[in-house]
Amino acid sequence: MADQTLDAKGLNCPLPILRAKKALSTLPPGGTLEVLATDPGAVKDFEAFARTTGHELLESTTEGNVFRFVLKHKA
Amino acid sequence: MSESAGAKRMSIIVTKGTLDWAYPPFILSTTAAAMGLDVTLFFTFYGLPLLLKDLDLKMSPLGNPAMKMPMMGGHMGMPNIMSMIPGVDAGATAMMKNMMKKKGVASIPELRSLAVESGVRMIACQMTMDLFEYRKEDMIEGIEIGGAATYIEVATQSQINLFI
Questions:
Q1: Domain boundaries, chain B
Q2: Which of B12, B118, B162 is closest to A18 using CA atoms?
Q3: Rounded to a whole number, what is the distance in Å from the CA of A33 to chain B's nearest CA?
Q4: A57 and A46 in contact (C-beta within 8 Å)?
Q5: Which of A21, A33, A49, A67 is the best residue to mutate to test the B interface, defined by the most B CB atoms within 10 Å of its own CB?
Q6: B9-57+108-163 in CATH: which number?
């Protein structure tokens, strides 16, 4: 279970990333954030976001038409 | 500027101020800031109105054959002559804004506040301010005013420099 969940369903690029970044900044290092999104572009975008920022993308899964990501705030 | 040591930098010259063209600079700058970059936007010529307190963004299908709206299962462009008819551009603008809202696309005022909030540096071109008679009081808080040399200095220190 992630420390915090962000519902970004229905939001389009770049809002899921922007909201995720905002939520991550409220978490301590090592804290985890679950993001739910319906924007198919978010799949590649969260990978790129994680590679560039150093926050770890622990999970990236699809359930129906909802994409679920778990990010870990970098230590 | 929210200058973080060792952070990568991006600059964008913003030259267009219609509703559609306002998107790329604000989407890219907010995203880059979220990804840890220091971002500077330089607003010049028709990009300058994007800094006005009162945003009144419009768009026109005139001279834009690539602008095709989804309609009745297909896509429909608009002949140039339609734009001459009063109300058609306003209608196209309203239609675009509705479509964006429905698809969860952020509005420009929202993206601009997010840019300000995330420390994106915004520079208004002094020459354009003089040329079109804009005053600093007409613009949102926190912007700077500068010229070409100010931009070039930023560009020499940036890994990404875009012209939109």
A1: 9-57+108-163
A2: B118
A3: 15
A4: yes
A5: A21
A6: 3.40.1260.10
Domains of chain A with bracketed CATH: 4-72 (3.30.110.40)
Q: Is the separation of the CB atoms in B128 and B45 below 8 Å?
A: yes
- For residue A46, give both structure tokens: 């969260």
Render pLDDT for A3-34 as a digit per residue (tens, 0 to 9): 999 999 999 999 999 999 999 999 999 999 99
- Which ipTM did the prediction report? 0.91
Is residue B58 within 8 A of residue B48, CB to CB? The reply is no
Is A13 annotated as catalytic? Answer: yes
- Among all residues of chain A, which has the CA nearest to that of B35? A53
Instruction: Pick from B35, B39, B101 the residue to mutate for testing the A interface (most A CBs within 10 Å).
Output: B35
Phi, psi of B8 (to 5 degrees): -70, 160
The CA distance from B157 to B9, in Å, is: 7
Q: Does any CB of chain B come closer than 8 Å to the CB of residue A69?
A: no
Check residue B67 and report its DSSP letter.
-
Q: What percent of chain B has pLDDT over 70?
A: 97
Classified as helix, coil or strand, B27 is helix
The verdict on a CB contact (< 8 Å) between B30 and A12 is no
Contact B114 A10 (CB under 8 A): no
Cα–Cα distance for residue pair A5/A69, rounded to 1 Å = 10
- Closest by Cα among B93, B3, B82 to B40: B3
B108 φ, ψ to 5°?
-65, -45
3-state secondary structure of A60: strand
